[in-house]
Amino acid sequence: MTTAQVVDLDLAGRTALVTGAGSGIGRACAERLAAAGADVVVVDIDERAAKEVAAATGGRAVPADLSDLDAVDALPAAVDVLVNNAGLQVVAPLTEFPAHEYSLIQRVMAEAPFRLVKLVLPHMYERGWGRIVNISSVHGLIASPFKAAYVSAKHALQGLSKVTALEGAARGVTSNCINPGFVRTPLVDKQIAGQAAVHGIDESEVIGTILLDRAAIKELVEPAEVAELLAYLCTPPARLITGASITIDCGWTAH
Ligand code: NAD
Predict the structure, then answer these.
(1) 247 lines ligand 1 (CB under 6 A)
(2) Which residue stretches of the chain are H helix?
(3) At 20, which CATH number?
(4) Annotation marks residue 102 as catalytic
(5) pLDDT band of 2, cuts 50, 70, 90
(6) Ligand 1: distance of its center to the CA of 228 in Å?
(7) Which of the 8 DSSP states describes residue 211?
(8) Which atom of ligand 1 is nearest to the CA of 66?
(9) Mind listing the pLDDT tens digit for each residue in 108-153?
(10) CB of 111 shorter than 6 A to ligand 1
(11) Signal peptide span per the entry (predicted)?
(12) Domain containing 168: what range?
């Protein structure tokens, strides 16, 4: 018989870099990692939000536009936990999809994560420990119409995460994707308002009948619930979880 052991997450002495940490899921991740003792580097294009989250978490604000890949290369490299989270959504049919928006989304959501992984891996390899967590989406696993750029970028992120897992395996570095369904954040609030206007229905109806149409549990995920999954991936018992895509999607992809 074994004795159950409760393992607390202790990130004292570790540095975590979270992109898009000024809002939503990124903010919740920064707060959770800081609560576990990590020094958090709060990266966001929104300087005011980055400073606010840095102040709230005792972290360091590093305002940066991730679509500027030179700026990405200049971010801190001495990082033990990397959370590739920043993202944006543009919804349009392929025949009308603005090409510049497609490129922007690939840069922010696929190329910047690659640059960051490349930047921080030498430090992780040197210390023999690293945790890379990519905030993907159900849209890293399946598609929806009108989201060509987002779905493409998230699928690319899934590939990057798996290659990172294979290369990092012998060096103490794990890499995983978290795949949320709809999470209650400003990114989704904008989509709810947009859909309500398009369909001429109220916002609660949008959530129940449009957004959560495919979800078995008709609820939005909370940002803190995503952050808790991230926290688990940083604990010692998660050391063998790598190359995985972990859904938190109310059963959406169970169909
Ligand atoms: P959000 O809009 O609340 O936050 C995104 C943050 O990213 C913002 O603070 C924004 O300023 C920052 N950002 C955007 N472009 C940037 C850029 N060029 N450079 C630096 N920072 C930039 O969004 P969220 O819902 O918290 O989404 C976070 C991540 O979670 C995204 O990758 C998103 O795709 C993913 N996700 C969200 C949901 C959801 O339902 N909200 C579901 C699945 C996956």
Answers:
(1) no
(2) 24-35, 47-57, 69-73, 99-106, 112-127, 148-168, 186-199, 203-205, 223-233
(3) 3.40.50.720
(4) no
(5) low
(6) 17
(7) I
(8) 19
(9) 999 999 999 999 999 999 999 999 999 999 999 999 999 999 999 9
(10) no
(11) none
(12) 15-181+222-248
